[in-house]
From TrEMBL:
Pfam families: Rhodanese. It comes from the Bacteria. It comes from Promicromonospora aerolata. Residues 30-146 form the Rhodanese domain. This is Rhodanese-like domain-containing protein. InterPro entries: Rhodanese-like_dom, Rhodanese-like_dom_sf.
Amino acid sequence: MSVPAHIEARTAEGYAGDITPQQAWDLLAADPGATLVDVRTEGEWQAIGVPDTTALGSQPVFSEWVRAGGRPNTRFLEELRAAGVTAGPVVFLCRSGQRSIGAARLATAAGLGPSYNVLEGFEGAPGVDGVRDQQGWKVAGLPWTEAGE
């Protein structure tokens, strides 16, 4: 299935583009072959929560882009393929929309895609007050669950 016409990705180098959290949800809803990949760390999933796509009949794939201690996940592509991510669209999500850019580029280079980055990530960059949760998936009102739910 192709990307719905109303989803216009912001131009990006090395991957299909940047989309808002709402556009990501719309893409996942419109294309049953689309996959959401959360590339945050396990600690972030546990402490902050995770996107909930059960209403769409799917579950996100969880694969750390960077391991605890800042070490790159050298098995990232292998983990994606093991989880069944072999075609696209693939939508990458991190905490603020930065790490997921690298994931989208690597996936594109490996032939997975089209690959998109979710702008603002799950909870956005810290505001001037140092607090997150001013933008991103959670603030957009998209479904998510807290750790342990």
